[in-house]
Amino acid sequence: MSSALRLIFLGPPGAGKGTQAQKLCEERGLANLSSGDVLRREIRAGSPLGERVGRYVRKGELVPDEVMTAVMLETIAALPPGTGFVLDGFPRTVPQAESLDAALTRVGDPIHAVLDFEVEDATIIERIVHRRVCTQCGSWYNTRSLPPKVAGVCDRCGAPLAQRDDDREEVVRRRLTVYRTQTAPLIAYYERQGLLRAIDAAVPAEQVEQVVRQVVASLDRKG
Ligand code: AMP
To answer: Which of 77, 83, 103, 190 has the CB geometry, 3.0–4.6 Å to 114, for a possible disulfide?
Structure first.
């Protein structure tokens, strides 16, 4: 089953989902499907979709469900058959989760588990202020906990690192409120389906990585 593992990474912005998704996907050969990355690519390219979603992303508001669901279901459908994936940042509302469930059930490829990365707001704000992302390949860094080898330069591709516009403190606070009101209900939603695996993401990234490995190994055993 591991080659076709299908996971959702849930949790507030700054919980470390992106970093963990990147590592797990590299290790297991899974597709790393970050909804935020998909949107940022469209915004950078100035596509019609990018123009439509840019104002929501800049303000830290959610892009409307029907737009987001269409984009992510297309992204999943475009994967080569049998490809496993990690969804990072999608779904973010109950209607998005219901659409995803329906689409995956139709093709007989349901989600195996939802990893819920939990961290308190104060820790998140402190983390995000130090977060940097590669302008080229999207790799994540943190100037304190996960610095690049050369300051301001991506280890993987050598491109410059930058702070995201929506990583400014006032936007982060808005994104956290949006998370607690619109996305947190998904915890109960997936718990009811028996898919939820809670992960303490307040500990250092290497420890979180170990726990993610253990959870994934337990899925392998079950599969
Ligand atoms: P992220 O990189 O996951 O923090 O996403 C950045 C921004 O993209 C969010 O603040 C939203 O504006 C938008 N976004 C990403 N994923 C979704 C989603 N599933 N539903 C609605 N908006 C989203």
So the answer is: 190
